[in-house]
Design goal:
Distance between the termini: 36 Å
Shape: globular
Number of domains: 3
Low-confidence stretches: 148-154, 167-175
CATH class of the largest domain: Mainly Alpha
Order of helices and strands: HHHHHHHHHHHHH
Length: 239
């Protein structure tokens, strides 16, 4: 694997059209792609096809990565790589998630909720990785795996007889309920800085100027971030 500084240099070059830099990133990140692909072996899709899909996901991660993100590129790339593979398998056949991955995902969610209650914010991937003795990439992958389509009657967790359906509040129409689920899912995929802007702007009624002072950036940057968030949400509801 490339070191962080070299990776960023190659990403910037690749985003400017340098094909050699893009190829270098693919070659050096192939172990990461293979580790993700290995989780999907056993279905009807050929291994080489899965590698191609994973490589396509990595290229998308390269093109979309913002070097200002406070996250390692490999951590950002994991859901992009897995997403390409999942979309293909979802359209081509059923997706199977291992019990170990489900167990890790449920454990992570419980820890995230407990951490939020105690600290008022979500824990970092690094904190969760250390807590569960896994890598940050495995944390991202496990949490992303929970976005697979599941039955509403599947058990909520191993310690409860309740199904997912039991956890959905009643008293509202189906369309409103679905909109809330979609909104929650989209917000969960936003980078931490965008989530913070969203909370400050729409839940705490802060102005763009106030948010800019809190985050130590310009109002123009906050305006751009807000526009980006709104664009992301609009796309989700247009699908």
């Amino acid at each position: 694997m490339l070191d962080g500084e070299t990776t960023l240099k190659y990403i910037k070059a690749a985003q400017q059209g340098d094909e050699h830099a893009k190829e270098e990133l693919i070659v050096h990140n192939m172990p990461l792609i293979k580790s993700i692909v290995a989780r999907y072996r056993g279905n009807a899709t050929e291994y080489e096809d899965l590698l191609q899909l994973g490589s396509l996901g990595l290229v998308k991660a390269i093109n979309n990565f913002d070097t200002s993100y406070n996250v390692r590129f490999s951590t950002y790339a994991v859901p992009m790589i897995a997403g390409e593979i999942k979309r293909f398998i979802r359209d081509d056949g059923a997706i199977k998630v291992s019990r170990a991955l489900k167990t890790l995902s449920m454990g992570l969610k419980k820890e995230i909720e407990a951490y939020r209650l105690a600290n008022g914010e979500a824990p970092s991937a690094e904190y969760l990785a250390e807590k569960f003795c896994v890598t940050p990439q495995e944390v991202v992958f496990a949490l992303d795996s929970s976005k697979y389509p599941v039955s509403l009657y599947e058990k909520f967790d191993d310690d409860s007889n309740q199904s997912i359906m039991d956890k959905i509040p009643s008293g509202e129409d189906q369309e409103s309920m679905v909109d809330k689920l979609v909104l929650k899912d989209v917000i969960s995929t936003l980078p931490e800085r965008e989530k913070k802007v969203l909370v400050l702007r729409y839940y705490k009624d802060k102005t763009q100027s106030e948010i800019a002072k809190i985050l130590g950036v310009s109002q123009v940057q906050i305006s751009r971030i807000e526009s980006k968030i709104i664009g992301t949400l609009k796309k989700a509801f247009e699908k």
